[in-house]
């Protein structure tokens, strides 16, 4: 039965991402309305594209396509049909598609991983089982792209507790605070590329503990350089989430996916990525 389920999931993903087996050169960064890829309706957000594939848009529909090597993003408007060329999109409309140059260079590896995960989540969420949520919320896994994290937990009403942060391998905490509410921003800076643990205790009883790692100084510099402004476009914020995911800052990436999902209920992939 397990092998049968694995085979079915593999077939589903192969259908959803037919270009994965070959060398993809672009991917979809946004879509609205009636959009088809090679005649198949509603391609998935982040779906990879090969040379020669065609995107068809009905009236008032739109899509955005970014080329992996150059970072150029083509803004496609319907009605019309567009074809993926080596380094550009060619359209059947009299006017060429709008294009903007960006500094983004998406990783094919993270594109495939994130897109496959979201596709499977969207299609299989009907069989997902409810699970008990842990008390500690952030950070509890992977890496973080900040040296002064805001710790978050699920607090009971009028609850106060003690939060302690340790460098892994050291007994003495680097910071201890009595906290109330459900969040606390660390007032001291951690070291890049270092492992830490934190605990939250109420009345001397540990409620939960978590471990995390800070990303490298170079990665932190890239995060601050590439962090989108509040009014940045959809695809820039989407690509920022991909960058965080590639760095291993998966919890922070999911928070970006969640904000995007709140804006775009028409793209269920985003809600799946946020989980």
Give the helices and strands, then pairings.
Elements lengths: L1 H15 L9 E7 L2 E3 L2 E2 L6 E2 L4 E4 L4 E6 L5 E5 L2 E5 L4 E3 L6 E3 L7 H17 L11 E3 L4 E2 L5 E4 L6 E8 L7 E6 L2 E3 L9 E8 L2 E10 L2 H10 L7 H14 L2 H14 L4 H6 L2
Walk me through this protein's architecture.
This protein has helices at residues 2-16, 108-124, 217-226, 234-247, 250-263, 268-273, and strands at residues 26-32, 35-37, 40-41, 48-49, 54-57, 62-67, 73-77, 80-84, 89-91, 98-100, 136-138, 143-144, 150-153, 160-167, 175-180, 183-185, 195-202, 205-214. The model is unreliable at 1-21 and 126-130 (pLDDT under 50). The strands form 4 sheets. Strands 4-1-6-7-10 form a 5-stranded antiparallel sheet, covered by helices on one side. The chain has a 5-stranded antiparallel sheet with strand order 3-2-5-8-9, with no helix packed on it. It has a 5-stranded mixed sheet with strand order 12-18-17-14-15, covered by helices on one side. It folds into 2 domains: 18-106, no CATH class; 108-275, Sandwich (Immunoglobulin-like), CATH 2.60.40. It is of the alpha+beta class and 275 residues long. Helix 4 runs antiparallel to helix 5.
């Amino acid at each position: 039965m397990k092998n049968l389920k694995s085979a079915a999931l593999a077939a589903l993903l192969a259908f959803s991402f037919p270009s994965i087996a070959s060398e993809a050169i672009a991917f979809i960064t946004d879509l609205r309305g009636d959009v088809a890829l090679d005649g198949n309706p509603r391609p998935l957000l982040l779906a990879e594209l090969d040379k020669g594939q065609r995107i068809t848009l009905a009236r008032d529909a739109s899509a955005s396509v970014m080329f992996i090597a150059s970072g150029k993003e083509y803004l496609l408007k319907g009605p019309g049909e567009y074809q993926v060329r080596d380094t550009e999109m060619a359209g059947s409309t009299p006017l060429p598609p709008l294009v903007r140059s960006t500094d983004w260079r998406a990783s094919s590896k993270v594109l495939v991983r994130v897109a496959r995960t979201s596709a499977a989540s969207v299609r299989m969420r009907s069989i997902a089982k409810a699970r008990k949520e842990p008390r500690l919320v952030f950070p509890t896994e992977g890496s973080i792209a900040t040296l002064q994290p805001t710790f978050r937990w699920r607090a009971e009403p009028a609850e106060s507790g003690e939060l302690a942060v340790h460098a892994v391998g050291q007994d003495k905490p680097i910071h201890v605070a009595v906290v109330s509410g459900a969040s606390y921003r660390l007032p001291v800076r951690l070291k890049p590329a270092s492992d830490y643990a934190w605990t939250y205790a109420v009345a001397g009883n540990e409620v939960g503990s978590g471990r995390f790692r800070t990303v490298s100084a170079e990665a932190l510099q890239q995060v601050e350089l590439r962090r989108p402004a509040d009014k940045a476009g959809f695809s820039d914020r989407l690509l920022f989430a991909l960058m965080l995911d590639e760095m291993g800052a998966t919890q922070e990436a999911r928070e970006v996916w969640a904000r995007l999902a709140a804006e775009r209920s028409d793209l269920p992939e985003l809600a799946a990525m946020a989980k």
